[in-house]
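Summary for the funding panel

The consortium committed to producing paired sequence-structure records for every protein in the target list. Below we show the first two records in order, beginning with the earlier of the two.
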Amino acid sequence: MKKTEALKKSCMKPMPSIIVSCRDKDGKDNALVVGYAGNCSYAPPMIMVGIVPSRYSYHIIKETGCFVVNIATAENKEMYDYLGKVSGRNEDKFAKLNIKTADGECVNAPLLTDCPVNIECKVVDSILTGSHEMFIGTVEKVHADKQFVDENGNILYKNMKML
């Protein structure tokens, strides 16, 4: 079998369809689509998200030390696409799309309540990896729609229509 060289950028698949939300020191909420993310520890539970330093949310997370990972599904496609294209530096994305939120219980950042899973995280470390800074956050609390959680508390991702 003959193989050809493929592009290096974003060669690992699947990439999770997530939206990271945050709140600045003045109480303004923002969110952005993040392509580089994943679990990085189970004891204690930690998640890493990669954000380009020029992004508006980058400085908010650096300053506040927290964020929420919101898992997007097919039902969230319009919000996901919009948040992936527009900067909060230029407009209030939450007002524009009438995004429904709830306050985090453990971190000062909004949960995007239309997303079926919201993961509250506190930043414990970060590392520059080239184009992105990987923020490593301890998982403080996981909120999930009841229909997607089994009797043992496991999230039933197979029952979601993922993007």
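The next record, for a separate protein in the list, is shown here:
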Amino acid sequence: MPKHYIEDSWRMPVQKMEIGDKLTTKTRIITKTDVELSALLGGDIAPQFLSEKAAQANNWKTQLVPGLCTLNIAYGLLIQAGFLADIIAYIGTTNMRFLAPVYPGEGIRMETEVTSKKKTRKGWICEYDWTIRNQDEVAVAEGHNV
């Protein structure tokens, strides 16, 4: 029977979970500083990421969080939860989509479901679906990892 783990109640890497098991991480608030550092370090200096005024001029509520910044912070939540603790290689992401905007000051969390596990001579190949949700339970991004 699949289990649903909440981060505060466990510390288990994906390799020890069963197909169908789920994890929900804790929530993290994304700050303007996170956005600015991500945009500047990655070179993604589009005005809507660095200026509230520019974002509003393009009909956004306020300054936007770049999708890859949201994704990076969400992966950090998985690492902090111990879900990716024993990973030795990242093979890829498929079916990744950004579904809704994220704004500074909003919280995100990562939800995962283990979809496949295969034992190899070097270790496990694990696959999982993931969804990033904001504080209002809105899915803002989703994908599948190997």
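Regarding this second record: The domain at 4-145 is CATH 3.10.129.10 (Thiol Ester Dehydrase; Chain A). The mean pLDDT is 91.
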